[in-house]
Amino acid sequence: MNKQLKITAIALAITSITGLTACGGGSGDSDSTNTSTGTSGSTITSGVVTGFGSIFVDGVEFETDSSSFSLDDGDDGPEDEEGLAVGMVVTVTGTVNADGVTGTADHIEFDDELEGIVNASNVGTEGTGTMTIMGQTVVISTTTIFESDVAGITGADLVVAGNVVEVSGFSSGDGTVYATRIEVKLAAHSGEEIEVKGIITNLTDTTFDLGELTVNFSTAMFDDDIPDSTLSEGLYIEVKSIAGFVNGDLIASEIEMEGNGDMDLDGDEGDEIELNGIVTAVNSDTAFEIGGHTVIITKSTEFEHGNAGDINIGVSLEVEGGLNAGGELVADEIELSIHDDIEMEGNLEDINNPPGTVTLLGKTIHITASTLLLDEQDEAGLVPVHFFGLDDLNSGDYVEIDAYLEADSGKLIAIKLERDDDIGTDD
After folding, report:
1. Domain 272-336 carries which CATH code?
2. Among the ranges given (218-222, 358-362, 386-390), the one the predictor scored with the smallest mean pLDDT
């Protein structure tokens, strides 16, 4: 039996990008649930998928019975959430109820940040570090979800140059992506379409750069949304390639403009926005970016669990506010989560005693609407549960838990709970 408790001090706000996974039950504490502004109305919510049974995004459970879906750049997806997975960054257009924790999704859109060839990997055995993928630096944290379709690649540390991976997360636009989910698709590229997004720099008649990646577009087709098939410095685009790399350059087969050619949030002035993600740039004392989306701090912005001085690159947070005429999100409220991460692993001793908790290593750990539950138990003929919830757990299950100590209540709050095969030995 493997039991371990490890405490590491890391300045990451990770509770706000994780959430409850539930299906047909599996309730948890509501004390730490993220809330909206408390008014019912049309809302655009952008954040990480944290669970199912409807779908959980940004601490809100959205009903999906009548939702439409589009996956990866508007391609028709399945008619329900089967095509989505925990860790994907999505945009939900719909309604948030007055309770702030339930709502109805009219439309859900997913678009990955990157799908391409790994150039190099610097990921440790604990699964954190960086990868260079198509010239982009991909940052992998303890809460990055990892999956693999390739036999033998069972962790991020086993990914090698030449593998083809899909990345969801938050991009700075200039070559850095903070990954919330990585999926290994192929052992090697063999003519499949690969794609990368970014802001054009160093434009010439035949090439431009996206971060450290040089793209040759001399034979590329241009999407109709690029006026006169003319590129320009600073344009935010997506490049697709079939040929892959020739002499170190990515050979573009198709180029599309992303959004309106910039990284502003889609929507109209006055739209209510809930944005949940990782800070990718700090522009000034009163402006920062999440995935390239500009957030404005005003004198009336309210802070929870911190202040403006705590906002740094790599910190995760939740912002609620409204769009201004320039497409910037003017923050009414910003919630940060910066705390020590407590890592625990072993066999569960009790579940739902009291309700909404698990017991591990003699400690009671609370499962909240911001807890990520993931099933990776796949040995001895077992199939991981996609719609995995608290009710799927059993005493004796081997789990790995990331948690933190809530200062106000003294409770241990689970950030992430992953059920795995009992390896029986220490890591």
Report:
1. 2.40.50.140
2. 386-390
